[in-house]
Design brief:
It contains 8 helices and 15 strands. It has about 260 residues and is of the alpha/beta class. A 5-stranded parallel beta sheet has the order 2-1-3-4-5, with helices on both faces. Strands 10-9-8-12-11 form a 5-stranded antiparallel beta sheet. A hairpin with a 2-residue loop joins strand 6 and strand 7. The longest helix is centred in the middle third of the chain and has 17 residues. The protein starts with a strand and ends in an 8-residue tail after the last helix.
């Protein structure tokens, strides 16, 4: 069985690879640290099984699967930090998952089930199950972000975010005075957030529109944006129409990348 491992965390990929090393019938044909490279590798190598992290920056696991032609859809064991009730979607569609952190026994059970599925289910059946799962996820978009701090995993609800700032290759989610580091670009976050509730006001800042207390006009279309947490943020002229349209109509204006 030819296996591809996809996870943005090096230690997570290593953990899966080490467990697979003991299986004589398995060949690890590659590892990917992001969704884009995973998409290309799946199409190029046609693995029998993919260990696929659901929560990845930029292109997440579900987006990887949506991008694939139906005939290239692999068998999948999802790697996830979802809370328990969200995992029912995988079970309903007879798709296996490993809830991080997982035990040696749970890993072995998932692998056994994957072998059975590969033997019994046709590629069409597997693709149909995955596509149904993706349709369900599209309809029931969960507005939350998974943030990790050491061994701790937290779920941050979109509605609880006050503002977001860029921090190199990461973003800082500011929530009720706490700061959570997320490995996402500002562009990727802007695309995921509800545009009726969040606005990008600067290349390095996104704010929750419901948290705005005051706008103060400064130089040539720039504003000082004061939020309910008493922080102040200077907008750039590029994003002035966003704030002006929000003031006028209560909605976001034209998108800016």
């Amino acid at each position: 069985m030819r296996v591809l491992i996809v996870d943005d965390e090096p230690l997570a990929r290593t953990g899966v690879a080490l467990r697979l090393k003991t299986c004589a019938d398995i060949e690890v044909i590659g590892e990917c640290e992001d969704g884009s490279s995973a998409e290309h590798k799946i199409i190029e190598l046609s693995p029998d099984l993919v260990f696929l992290d659901v929560q990845m920056p930029g292109m997440d696991g579900f987006e990887v699967l949506r991008s694939l032609p139906k005939e290239k859809m692999p068998n999948v064991i999802f790697l996830t930090a979802y809370e328990e009730h969200a995992l029912q979607a995988f079970e309903v569609h007879a798709l296996d998952y490993l809830l991080k952190p997982y035990s040696k026994e749970r890993f072995a059970a998932a692998l056994t089930q994957a072998r059975a599925q590969i033997d019994k289910a046709s590629k069409v059946e597997v693709a149909t199950r995955i596509l149904r799962l993706l349709e369900q996820q599209e309809v029931k978009r969960t507005p939350r972000f998974v943030v990790k701090s050491g061994a701790r995993i937290q779920l941050v609800e979109e509605r609880d975010i006050d503002w977001i700032s860029a921090a190199g290759d990461y973003a800082e989610l500011h929530v009720n005075g706490a700061v959570h580091l997320l490995r996402e670009t500002m562009g990727a976050l802007e695309a995921k957030l509800d545009s009726s509730h969040f606005a990008r006001i600067h290349r390095s800042k996104i704010v929750n529109l419901s948290r705005i207390l005051e706008l103060r006009s400064v130089d040539n279309g720039e504003y000082i944006v004061k939020l309910r947490d008493r922080t102040q943020h200077r907008s750039s002229r590029t994003y002035a129409p966003t704030l002006e349209n929000w003031l006028r109509f209560g909605i976001r204006g034209q998108d800016h990348s």
